[in-house]
Amino acid sequence: MVKRNPIVLWCMLLFSLAAVGTVAGEIYVDATATAGAKNGTSWADAYLYIQDALIEAVAEPDEIRVAQGTYRPDRDSANPTGSKLRTATFQLLNDVEIYGGFPPGGGLWLDRDPNRYLTTLTGDLDGDDGPDFANNSENSYHVVTATGTSATAVLDGFTITAGNANAADANSYGGGIYNDSGNATVTNCTITGNRAVAGGGMYNDGSSATLRDCKFVGNSSDSIGGGMYNYWSDGLVISECTFSANSTYDGGGGIYNYWTNSTISNCTFVGNSARNSFTSGGAILNEVYSNPILTNCLFSGNRADFGGAICSYDSNPGVFDCTLSGNSAGDGGGIYGYESDPTITNCIFWGNTDDGGSDEDTQIYVFTGNPVVSYSCIQGLDTFAGGGNIGDNPLFERDPNDGGDGWGDDPCTPGVDEGDNDDYGDLRLSIPVSPCVDTGSNPGVPADTADLDDDGNTAEKTPWDLDGNARILDGNADSTATVDMGALEFARANIVRNPVQFTFIVSRPGYDSEPQSLYISNSGAGQLNWQITFGCDWLIADPNSGSSTLNPYEVLLSTDTSGLAWGSYSCQGTISSPDAVNSPQTFQVDLNIVKGDFDADGDVDLGELSIFASAWLKTLGQDGYNPVCDIAEPSNNFIDEADLAEFAENWLQGRY
Question: How far, in Å, CA of 225 to CA of 366, rounded?
């Protein structure tokens, strides 16, 4: 065996590392970097351009960390001012995870906050875009491209904006993200202000991509799919995403599906529109054998001519545990179907409007087809009566309201935004006696295809509602957990306080004992925001308000006896919360200021005798003087016969 000199091995290793620039691990990008080697090996030596990091990652699959800043796809170290090529795009790569949201200058993973440190990928190559897509003729066709990727290509924590796919063929689709036969993972991203002929925010063709916790906001298309266009994309999973204020000229303001069987879970669709005459699907348009499964989704303030929220032609969507309210259309304010057999279970259709008013046909209008509707709340219930369906007001916390001027902005009135007064409501069930609480069907809750709880089990029932609370709860306290109708389970916090009784013993007025701990926790669902008040002025809570989860929150209770006399006092503390089903809850506090109880143990006994003897005939300022023994009134700062007489009078007094 040949023995190798370890020094030689270290030198060989260092030489190898220098040759490749970085080892497999992280590549760093910071648009604000002013010094360093600009080779991506650390934050101090970060690349200025994402494209340089992607070039390196092609040869060495890696993780790319990107600091706050604005990044354009036509720029790299070879083209620092940009190539101005509209075909420039950020191409995602297999086995490469790209994370935005790090602070300027970089930081640890714990410092990462995409909401605070906005990391923007923009197609505005000249940096001159104006409102309403002005000056975007030179913008990139696709800001991001995910073509040919697997799920190992990850984009997380970015704002993707200003794509303009206004040309022909492939360059007419997907202004924000273009994805042909790619299965990338896109999470925690905001896709906003992009435009295309079709698929303004994103275009998926033959894709099984995963999108989670993303926002599609204010994207537009000239034909179909303002927010997203999905073509032959079975296996596409969209979860915990928001589609708002997206618009299209023809159909599918939020999403357009063509021959696509996708999973759409825990998503919110508000203020999307199809704005031309004879348009379809303000939020979602399904065409040609598109059978998406929608679970725990909320639709409000969406509008089109046919199907204010959802329109389906030759398609059979499954709509489970969803809430549709405040959507509007010429026909079918909630759902419109033609040659459509939708399955609808555990849903709420209330307050949707069309030219016929707000009756049952307004909520669910199927021109031709055989819808199966069960365990749902439907305004104007008529032909769908039976099967567990009800027609009673669901009693939302707050109904949607378009302000009286229709949903969204009217393009015919420039300078006035009618959408400013749009209120999409609070569509949680307001009180436990809502007719929708515990009146759904547990077997009707679909499988967790989106794996919302990340446990790898997609066969289990959907575990959460739209708010992230347990999907099946006992909302009416009848000891049986039954799913509610709608996207939001009636999930209220529940105040738990421990202990419920406190006793403070103080040796004399003006003196206070050690603080005691009150623990407040939430045994229910959601957030518990609480406040403590007292029926007296001698109790102090620190803090006196806060928020609790399952983990107990410690509150320190203390006394202020400076204005009190000798004696016993009682006070009630009250814990109140607008979130809690059992608010208010109380606890009792007793205070005893016992004359002669020098050690504050509740008894005047031999322990006090020893303390008093040590202070006998001592005056203020002398060693051994103990002010708690100066119990004769008025106080004279001298432990004398008067104090002894008071002490004797209270000798052997029991507890309180």
Answer: 22
Tokens of 6: 């370890």
Same domain, 475 and 338: yes
CB 379 within 8 A of CB 391: yes
Look at residue 286 and tell me if it is in a domain: yes
Are residues 633 and 584 located together in one domain of the fold? Answer: no
DSSP helix/strand/coil, 642: helix
How many domains does the structure of the chain reveal? 4
pLDDT at 3: 36
Of the three residues 491, 518, 533, the one that is the final residue of a domain is: 491
C-alpha dist (Å) from residue 91 to 313, 342, 351? 34, 38, 44
**Residue 366 and residue 275 in one domain:** yes
Whole-number average pLDDT of the chain: 91
Residue 58 within any structural domain of the chain: yes
Domain that holds residue 58: 24-249
* Residue 13, pLDDT score: 32
Q: Which residues, in sequence order, are bridge partners of residue 315?
A: none
Please list, in sequence order, all residues whose beta carbon lies within 8 angstroms of the beta carbon of residue 471, skipping any fewer than 6 positions away. Answer: 296, 321, 445, 461, 462, 463, 464, 465, 483, 489
pLDDT at position 417, please?
Answer: 83
Asked if residue 277 and residue 183 are part of one domain, the reply reads no
Rounded CA gap, 96 and 153, in Å? 5
Q: What is the pLDDT of residues 187-225, one digit of tens each?
A: 999 999 999 999 999 999 999 999 999 999 999 999 999
Q: In what order do the strands lie in the sheet with 273-274?
A: 164-165, 195-198, 220-224, 247-248, 273-274
Classified as helix, coil or strand, 9 is helix
In this structure, are 417 and 513 located in the same domain? no
Which of 150-159, 214-223, 509-518 is predicted with the least confidence, judged by mean pLDDT? 509-518
Residue where one domain finishes, among candidates 551, 572, 593: 593
Q: Within a domain: residue 10?
A: no
- Sequence-distant (6+) residues with CB within 8 A of 582 are 494, 495
Specify whether 40 is located in the same domain as 177: yes
CATH code of residue 560: 2.60.40.10
Mean pLDDT of 577-599: 85
Of 50, 93, 289, nearest in space to 183 by CA: 93
Most confident of 40-54, 467-481, 526-540: 40-54
Residue 556 pLDDT > 60: yes
Q: Using CA atoms, how far apart are residues 99 and 188, in angstroms rounded to an integer?
A: 10
Q: Do 35 and 58 sit in the same domain of this protein? A: yes
* Contacting residues for 330 by C-beta, under 8 A, at least 6 apart: 305, 306, 354, 355
Rounded to the nearest 10 degrees, how much is the dihedral formed by the CA atoms of 307, 290, 300, 322? 120
Burial (CB count <10 Å: 0-12, 13-18, 19+), residue 35: exposed
Structure token digits, residue 348? 């709420």
499 shares its domain with 487: no
* Burial state string for 239-276 with b = 16 or more CB within 10 A and e = fewer than 16: bbbbbbbbbbbbbbbbbbbbbbbbbbbbbbbbbbbbbe
Does 482 map to a domain? Answer: yes
Token code pair at residue 238: 């969209």
